[in-house]
Design goal:
Elements: H1 5-13, H2 15-38, E1 42-44, H3 47-57, H4 74-85, E2 87-89, H5 94-123, H6 127-138, H7 143-154, H8 160-178
Helix pairs in contact: 2-5, 3-4, 6-8
């Protein structure tokens, strides 16, 4: 794909957003991998936890009006079934987790290429050009602010027109790099 100036500018403007999205995807990937590792495993409650849960969820003796042979007293019922209830299987859908992980990894790869591409391009321009590109595209600053910040940083006055020339030269260099082999 051959890049044009507007596409390159869009890539530069979205760079910080892409970095943030990449970080968020890495966090989600880590979370989903942990969930996948735990999915299908057996968790064993302590005896106290199991009894407490059964007591909280069981019906009271006075509330039960059943014609079955089932024991309706909470204490008796808990005593008979708590061993069976101690083991719980985490039934989280492994297929869903695996598909989300693949989806996140694919999106991460795409974002990573965009982030690395911008960093590579910024490394190939002069300090002055990088400073102007950073403020104009990545920080979305106005030209009068860039002019002021440039003077504070380099202690040299440059007009807005000169700073725009730095920007244009940097974009030309970046387009030559990004479009290598596509001539």
């Amino acid at each position: 794909m051959r890049y044009i100036k507007e596409e390159l500018e869009g890539l530069l403007r979205k760079h910080k957003e892409h970095e943030a999205q990449l970080t968020e995807l890495e966090l989600k990937l880590e979370e989903y991998k942990e969930r996948l590792e735990y999915a299908g495993t057996v968790y064993q409650d302590t005896e106290e936890e199991t009894i407490e849960n059964l007591q909280l969820h069981g019906k009271g003796f006075d509330e039960v009006s059943s014609n079955t042979n089932k024991v309706s007293d909470k204490v008796s019922s808990t005593a008979m079934i708590y061993k069976r209830e101690m083991n719980h299987i985490n039934n989280e859908d492994r297929t869903h987790l695996e598909s989300k992980i693949r989806e996140f990894e694919k999106e991460k790869d795409t974002l990573n290429k965009k982030v690395v591409r911008v960093k590579n391009l910024l490394d190939r321009v002069t300090i002055d050009e990088r400073y102007v590109i950073n403020l104009f595209y990545l920080e979305e600053s106005k030209w009068d602010y860039i002019e002021k910040k440039y003077f504070e940083e380099f202690e040299r006055h440059k007009s807005i027109k000169q700073l725009q020339t730095y920007r244009d030269n940097a974009l030309d260099k970046m387009l030559n790099i990004i479009n290598i082999g596509l001539q």
